[in-house]
Amino acid sequence: MHQPTITNESLGFSIMLVLVAIFISHKEKLALEKDIIWSTLRAIIQLLIVGYILKYIFQVDHEILTIAMVMFICFNAAWNAKKRSKYIDKIFGTAFIAITSGTFLTLIILITSKAIAFTPMQVIPITGMIAGNAMIAVGLCFNNLGQRFNSQQQQIQEMLSLGATPKIASASIIRESIRASLIPTVDSAKTVGIVSLPGMMSGLIFAGVDPLEAVKYQIMVTFMLLATASLSTILAGYMTYIKFYNERHQLLINTLNK
Length: 258
Fold this sequence. Notes:
Elements: H1 8-27, H2 33-60, H3 63-82, H4 92-112, H5 120-151, H6 153-161, H7 166-181, H8 183-191, H9 199-206, H10 211-240, H11 253-256
């Protein structure tokens, strides 16, 4: 079977698609040219750096380096998730704990069940997939919480004045925020194989793996994404809501009116 290869010429032709997007943005006055160019350059630089780092880690194959890379991925996922939190300051710690907890629990189950081996070639790519998905869900959770607390200030104040605790007053907001944050992950799981052929499954098929074997791996990945995103988002939601109140259990109006 012919193995597909990507040459420098192939990459050169593929960048023409980006130029088409830039041209359309300029012609339609969408003002996205700088963002597209910056995103493209950043992606190229980041991927090249990560490629060289992974090549070294795969060759060394050391447990400490593998764990360090997993922590690095979780750190960056938390850093990007906290950017969604315009209503709350100092939220990085919460994002890091939520994403790292969900990621490590999933990895531990996969490794102990021998679904994957504790090698950098398997652990690091899996970590990237599940932490990246958790990052999106947690970031959405922060944003949803802020918007809902902002729009429902009056109802919350009334419940607090009637003697409700912050947890009781926030219960519906937490539930709705978590539910809304998981919609992309749930919808992705619903349409996998029908609308989309995910990257891991497509990559295995490209590499010549039997499609049914590739499907098994993709089912495992789907379970991982759902589990990690759910756990991380639930942790983030219940660790974050209290930050909208002061030590006297009063709603922080100034925070919401930023």
